[in-house]
Structure of N-acetyltransferase domain-containing protein:
Amino acid sequence: MRTPSLPSHPLAKPGTNHNPQKPLPAELSITPITASTLPAYRRLITLLLPIRYPDKFYEDSIANPTPSSLALCALWHETPRPGKRKLESLNDEMPSSTPATTEPEAKVIGGIQCRLEPLPCPPSTIPTCLISPLPQQQPHNLYIQTLAILSPYRSLGIATAILDAIISTTLTYYPCQNINVKEIYAHVWEANEEALEWYIKRGFEVEGEMVEGYYTKLRPSGARIVRRVVGVVDWVDAGGGWERKREESRDGVEREAEREVIGKARDGGG
């Protein structure tokens, strides 16, 4: 069965950046990770992050997008591409052997990899089948596993762009899979004040409790959790405004059906 590809999204969106965002370089593109860019992506993650990820983590990064793995990489092209600064589609039909770019000089300068984590659904006193035959959306959080940019490129807004891109991708694609993303969160090394400040500027809040011993190879070894709620701006930036309104309309129909079922039960009617 054919899975619809995700639409492309312009990179220069303020979805998670609450500060004015500078124009992105014409040399930049953001694409899915493929077999051709995987070795460079793996070297980048190994170089910049203190966690050693297993082979399966990297294998998942080039697989078809699933809730357990959503990954994008930032490419730097020697030749500016003013007409192509947008996110390539995460396409379920894209073979892993397809090159990420048609230009051999493109360099992997950053990457992001996330997973969707299901949240427990609140218990319902009325069976879903009595309320509506429509499928129910399951709440999830989006967990940022890795987010890394090579140091010479960190002042160009690329980290914000790639984070915006993965959020936009997730909100565009996964409502069709009956997944409702509620929050975004990540672990940050307690001593990395620069990273904590970066997340705070983009609407994240730092939780008070320290996760002791999270980074076993670092001293100090603790981690802070940064978290923010997925809001209306995210849905608008993802082009999901209409879909969101449609879901809210559907929820209203379901609530009305629920009230009708309760009323009939009280009246003894059928």
Observations:
- Residues 241-267 form the longest helix (27 residues).
- The CA atoms of residues 33 and 171 lie 19 Å apart.
- Residues 1-19, 91-102, 125-134, 240-246 have pLDDT under 50 and may be disordered.
